[in-house]
What we know:
The complex is a heterodimer of chains A (about 325) and B (about 550). Chain A has ten helices and 18 strands. Chain A is of the alpha+beta class and about 325 residues long. In chain A, a hairpin with a 2-residue loop joins strand 9 and strand 10 (about 215-220). Chain A is elongated, with a radius of gyration of 24 Å. Chain B is an all-alpha fold. Chain B is built from 25 helices and two strands. Chains A and B meet through helix 2 and strand 6 of A and helix 21 and helix 22 of B.
Amino acid sequence: MTAFLQIQAIEKRWRSDVTVGPITLDIARGEILALLGPSGSGKTTMLRLLAGFETADGGRITVANEDVTAVPPARRRFGMVFQHYALFPHLDVGQNVEFGLAGSGGPGAVNAKVAAALGLVDLAGYERRKVHELSGGQQQRVALARALAPEPRVLLLDEPLSNLDPALRERTRRELRQMIKRVGEGITTVFVTHEQEEAFDLGDRIAVLNNGRLEQTGTPEELYERPQNLFVATFVGRANVFRGGAARALGARESAVVVVRPERLRFAGAGLPGVVRERRYTGAAAFFLIEGDDHDRFEVLAEPDAAQVGERVYVEATRVITL
Amino acid sequence: MIRNLRRADLVAAGLALLLAWLVIYPILIVAGDAADATAVRAFLTRPGEWAALWASIWISLVSVVLAAAIGIPLAFLFEWFDFPGRKTLGALIALPVVLPPLVGVIAFLFLYGESGFIARAIQAALHLEQAPWRLQGAVAILLVHAYSFYVYFYLFTRAGLAKLDVSMLEAAQALGADRRATLFRVIVPLLRPSLVGAAILTFMTALGSFSAPYIFGGGFRVMTTQIVATKLNGDLPLAMVETVALAVIAVAGLAILRGTEGDDILVALGKGIAPRPRPIRRAGVRRLATVAGWGLAILLLLPHLTLVLVSLVPYGAWTTEIVPPVINLENYRRLFSEAERLRPLLNSLWMAAASTAVAVVLALAGGWLVVRKRVALRRVIEGLLALPWALPGTVFAIALAITFSTHAPLQLRFVLVGTSIILPLAYLVRALPLTGRGILASYRQLDPSLEEAAASLGAGRWRTLARVTLPQLRPGLAAGASLAFVAALGDIVASIVLYTYETRPVSIEILSSLRLSETGVAAAFGVVLMLVSALVLGVGARR
Lengths: 323, 543
């Protein structure tokens, strides 16, 4: 993999006890990278460092081998879609998209670029609409068109879907990914999210941040199946953590901590014993909350009629992650 | 970031110094010079001084009570009950707030004064030898104050009522509270911040009020007129002691009233749906409300209609008749064709424009440093911008007159009194709180990501300012600037202390026309001021 956007030991010190980094990350040309983490993990700071709104206290950012660490946002040529879109309310859709095109050819060329950018996000002909007349999803697409129109080297998205209602989110995730992949041969993109599903659906690769540190980078499958530590294991997807006797009952080595996904547990004739305390029905399957004999609770995902509340069961693991 | 911060902090230090030089330094000089034993003794021993001081205090307090007594019921009437003409009248009776105080005062004079419209009518009807009353002294001042300041209570109470959450009133009713209990246990406590705000504004305005006591006071003196009289008598040390005394009352009054303000929580609690105006069902009550609404509105607007009428009567044409025998545009023709009469108008216009422009620039710089850069001196800058509001205009007029009549460059004192700079400078000081408040409030509401979005799209600092920041600040900027412009245009407090013949503003010309009994010309000037003010404020308030 040849890195297009390189983040080298970048660091931001807010206070002596609140720091982000040092973080090192390479992002390939055309790759979509998700920065995933809980609030306060430093993911927004990372994005703002990339955009140039914050100045790093250490480290370097390079794009195609050009050092941009000290380049101000206006000359960095990074496009950004803000969490609340930051569309200029006093300008119409066309003027918003046109904003970044100042000095890039005559009026004809600019209009063509505006039309192309709006076409890309399926809003052709919306030039003279007022921003506040648009729905949330349309506003988001205008923000995307505006960021893409000046042909930025890197696209940055801050919580791109958090402003949409849940029903719209899933569809928009797929559309957003298609639109990004449609630009040129795919534009190098970094986006911030605190939702694992969003990161999985939209990102090629995910960087998990926690407390200002990079915990792990990888594809969704790598993070889910081979988490490198307990934080990643529990933050990415649902996870049951077993220690001691319970861990050994599931086949772990001495004193190891094991993580088992709910769908990797199943009811059996023998194994880890417990009592079904709750059953949460989701339609296709059900989550069974089991209280083990050591009073630790864990979840099993199984067929809806696999067990009854109050029933005594035995559980075995089909795949364990040993940490 | 660190380099940026340092530069912003340097700019902030410069701005803070400039503002301090404008709004604090002159006050400090007066306070220092006022520490003159003879003058202080004179102030403390003369009964006239104590009387004026006491008069300022009680006139201001009674003005608050009277303004509240008119403004609050009006607000309830117009916010809660629906009757024919509600909307138009509701906007009309807020009109006095947009008018320069001097215009209101002379309008009042022409209507209720001893040679005014009403006195004349009564005199003719009853065949009296003399006018039935003399509108003078404390009663006259209070009448004018009540008439001019009820607007503060009216507007604040209406705004407070409009913010009420109807579900809170419904909750009170569901909990068994009757109307009276709902009013006193729910509505009034919720309105308290609005009412205290109106009381503070009224008290401060009444304390600084100059034109009403100047024109109607006669022998009755309050501090503002006392200070100007002492200054005109040439007793500068005493004038300075009086100025300090007035400033102390203002600050003390402000502090005491602020103390009753209560918690912001009351306002911040809920953002619900305001109660809708109730159509009045009973025909009798409905008629009564309509009559009361129209009657009050006409009563309150009558002075301005009178002003328009008087402005149409040529010099000497109206002597003993009840209605003027001749009506034409002669006064306006003279006003615009005689160079000596047009001059004050042009003076006022350019001085108001210049002071407003500088006040806007300073407030913009202040907003950028305080809100966006969050510089270390942000509290100081914000305080300095707001400070002139807390002190009566007379205090600043005297302070500037003293400070800038001495040549001492090393003390940053220059002779500006007598030049054409001093009046715009005085107007600028008064304009700072108005533009400052408007622009800072707008800046706080401005989403920083808009400016960041502009930057990420390649816009430099000036393009971002012109294309994004200024258009977004426009409502607050326009509101603040139009208020500042109108205040400067109608100013008399600073003008009367600092004007020269060449730079005399409209207000001074109105006073001298009145002195020459050229009431028509004075009224015409008043109408022009009224129209320009209304026009500017109308433009400023447009969304």
